[in-house]
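hey so u asked for the seq, here:
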Amino acid sequence: MRILHILNHTRRLNGHVHAAVDLACAQVRLGHQVYVASEGGDFDALLQANGIQTLLISHKRKAPSLIKALLALSSYIKKFNIDIVHAHMMTSAVIAFPICKLRRIPLITTVHNEFEKSATLMGLGTRVIAVSDVVGASMRRRGVAPSKLKVVLNGTIGSSRAEGRSEEPKVLRSPSILFVGGLHPRKGVPDLFNAFETVHRSFSSAHLYIVGDGPFREEYKKAAATLQSASAITFVGSTRDPYPYMLGADIFVLPSHADPAPLVLSEAREAGCAIVGSSVDGIPQLLEHGEAGLLVPPNDPDALAETLSHLLESPDRIADWRRKSQLRIERLMIERVAKETLEVYHSAIPRAKAVALAT
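ran it, structure tokens below
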């Protein structure tokens, strides 16, 4: 099958980029011809190393740029005889929709950021993939027909991005609590600061590590500096690979207010962390609804502090939740994601063509 993924860019900054890159590389390993059209970025070299041709399509939301994007996409589809177009963001879907209609090619859309109002436009797809059950339910409420909506739970274990990464744990001050993610309000970092302030009063040896960057980094650093626990909080900043920090951490925390299906939980579970996550969006599903990680209400620093304290009271509890993180972890393999996505593709292709592709 000849597959064209279209997304706004291939920079490391966004989770949807990681998911699209992981999927594209996994599809190549399954024997398919894959192309990625975007404005380019950090992952282009990795894509090319995996036999994926990268193509240029502007995603600027201005009429002249959109017209050029439409013409470019039409040209690529014709030149490479594309069977499936897979759009990963709203602008990508809007660009792809008329060309796919004109050329009678199925358009698959993946809803990565369901919390955005524009996610409704992902319903333009012939098939719409939701990255978790909660996202699927939300898209049904937005009017996407159940007949064309499929849930393919995010997973990233075994991805090409992980090849050659360091397996050496970072040496962290123990007991260590780790957050990895973008520094903006949706991730609930201020809640974590407030919870850690409470925790630190009883567990003065605990240390909090913040890995990641974002528009609120300086604001969060100033807020942390006012806390009595300030000396026990380390801002690591952005890193190419946070996995060694996960390997070295005792507890991984994701206190998000909204998070459709964060890939970082796959990585934290793979690293064997004891995990605490907020019970919002796709987080419970990725944590086996509390069997593979502890769940706390979002926007509730007191509940988060209580759960962290419960773990820190006993190293045996942390060890127990480390073991529990491995429960049914095979569900988070990228190969499973790729195979389920291909099933969605086949369901969207006219029967005669599907038979031809299978033979």
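Residues 176-332 form a domain with the Rossmann fold fold (CATH 3.40.50.2000). The chain has 14 helices and 13 strands.
lmk if thats what u needed
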